[in-house]
Design brief:
Elements: H1 4-12, E1 15-18, E2 28-44, E3 66-86, H2 89-98, E4 102-105, E5 111-113, E6 125-131, H3 136-142
Parallel strand pairs: 1-6
Antiparallel strand pairs: 1-3, 2-3, 2-5, 4-6
Length: about 140
């Protein structure tokens, strides 16, 4: 079966549930129930932050605007489509550095594979889901 490769890999290592640019078409398709996507993080394009990109328009100018990023929030009736990607300690450290506006939380209770089967593997399931308290106010201010 085509999905056996990702399932087998997930059974051997912890995974991260991701959505959007975080996953770029890799991993085991999965669904996270009890959560919904939202625009919960924003970056001020006029402020230089080490390690972050800025938005430059077609004329090469850097407009004064806020760039929004997806987040998820608990929502009893919602669901988020994404993928489970196996990770090792090094990959998780790189992910934490890249996604520093987010906090990892355990969402294993709401995860199932896209075909409805349980996501294989041990109890360690991490999700890049919640905007850090320091990140969320920028999105509210930008709205």
């Amino acid at each position: 079966m085509e999905g056996d490769g990702p399932r087998l890999e997930l059974s051997r290592r912890p995974c991260v549930f991701g959505y959007g640019s975080l996953v770029a078409g890799r991993g085991l398709p999965a669904r996270l129930s009890g959560w919904s996507r939202r625009w919960g993080v924003a970056m001020d394009n006029a402020v230089d932050l080490p390690g972050y990109k800025c938005y430059v328009d077609a004329d090469g100018l850097r407009p004064s605007l806020c760039v929004a990023f997806l987040d998820v929030a608990e929502d009893g009736g919602g669901a988020v489509e994404g993928v489970c990607v196996p990770v090792d300690a090094d990959a998780l450290a790189r992910l934490d550095a890249r996604e520093r506006n987010y906090a990892r939380v355990d969402v294993s209770g709401g995860l199932v594979a896209a075909d409805g089967a349980p996501v294989p593997g041990g109890p360690t399931r991490a999700a890049r889901t919640l905007a850090r308290a320091s990140s969320a106010p920028r999105a509210t201010a930008a709205a």
